[in-house]
Amino acid sequence: MLYVRQQQNAGSRQQRNTGIQQRVKLQHIAGLSIRYLICVVVAIFMLVPILTAFLGAFKTTAELSTTPFSLPTVWHWENLASVLSQGVFWQSLANSLIITISTVVLLLVVACPAAFVFSRMPFRGREVIFNILLIGLLLPFAMAILPLYITLRNLQLLNTLWAVILPQAAFALPTTILILRNFFQAIPGELEDATYIDGGTHIDFFWRILLPLARPSLAVIIMLNVVASWNNFLLPLIVLNDSSQWTVPLGIMQFQGEHSTDWAAVMAYISLMMIPALIFYLFAERHLIAGLTAGAVKG
User: Fold this and answer.
1) Which parts of the chain register pLDDT below 70?
2) Which one of 59, 204, 240, 245 is separated from 94 by 20 to 30 angstroms, measured CA to CA?
3) Which pLDDT score is estimated for 13?
4) Cα separation values, 47 from 35, 51, 52, 175, Å
5) pLDDT of 298
6) CB-based contact 57:264 (threshold 8 Å)
7) Taking a C-beta distance cutoff of 8 angstroms, is the pair 179, 220 a contact?
């Protein structure tokens, strides 16, 4: 009799365990389903405007007004050809490329040594100077637009590409130095000691050890600043008066004003301007994810 009860108890426990496992499995599947559903919804909201622009580039204005989300009945490649034949397209594209590359290069040239000094070279007043630098994170760009304009005018930089490059690099310095400083501080001191024991200098440690290890963080910084510079509209609008110096956002504004009734041509212009940014993101995506996850796990 006791043996039968033990068997019944064991069977009931096994049934309870099986029920618990099934409930846990169902909860796990439900959680994953909700997450995938959220990702799909977010992806749809992000992709619909992009796909609408690309599909609209191959439609007529009438078709774009009636069926904006469908495939074109006839693919009108002449929309792209008409945009590519205009000099304003190539001029604004070249200006944006020059400004973006120059901004990122200047930013890294200044921020990397500064972050190295703030992280690995102790000196009196270091934290005070660093905290003063971080005040730049609290100031929005719109608050500084008037003194910035006056400064650029006094330096005779208005209506030049430098009027966009220098402020963009300056306003990105606090964030960049903060990111690199935290990463440099996480590098073990044994690597620095080993460099000095082998006869290396501070420059050797910075150039041969820190910068190669900081590639994930540098990739994040480059990605963020490329996107910010490429999409910057307010600063070029204020400091660039000559249309030959205009960037991609200003070129889109000018083209839209000239072709306010030809939305198919405007969509073609916007689609062509998005291609460089999309290509850059596709190549930089792997490095961006590695940079965002760098330092998440210690050891």
Assistant:
1) 1-20, 285-299
2) 59
3) 62
4) 18, 6, 8, 29
5) 43
6) yes
7) yes
User: Phi, psi (5° rounding) for residue 74?
Assistant: -130, 130
Task: Check residue 162 and give its pLDDT.
Answer: 94
Residue 44 pLDDT:
84
Is the pTM higher than 0.85?
no
- Per-residue pLDDT at 48: 84
Look at the block and give the residue holding tokens 């977010």.
42
Burial of 154 (0-12, 13-18, 19+ CB in 10 A): exposed
What gap in Å lies between CA 168 and CA 46, rounded to an integer? 27
At 68, give phi and psi (nearest 5°): -70, -25
Indicate the SS3 state at residue 67. Answer: coil
Q: How many CB atoms lie within 10 A of CB 44?
A: 10
Q: Which amino acid is at 36?
A: Y
Give the residue ranges of DSSP H helices in the chain. Answer: 2-56, 61-66, 78-84, 87-120, 126-134, 145-154, 162-185, 189-197, 202-204, 211-213, 215-231, 234-239, 248-258, 263-293
Residue 122: both structure tokens together: 């102790």
Token pair belonging to 120: 């690995």
Residue 224: the pLDDT is 86
Go through the chain and tell me how many residues it has.
299
**Which among 258, 280, 279 is positioned nearest to 269, based on CA atoms?**
258
How far apart are alpha carbons 278 and 141 in whole angstroms? 26
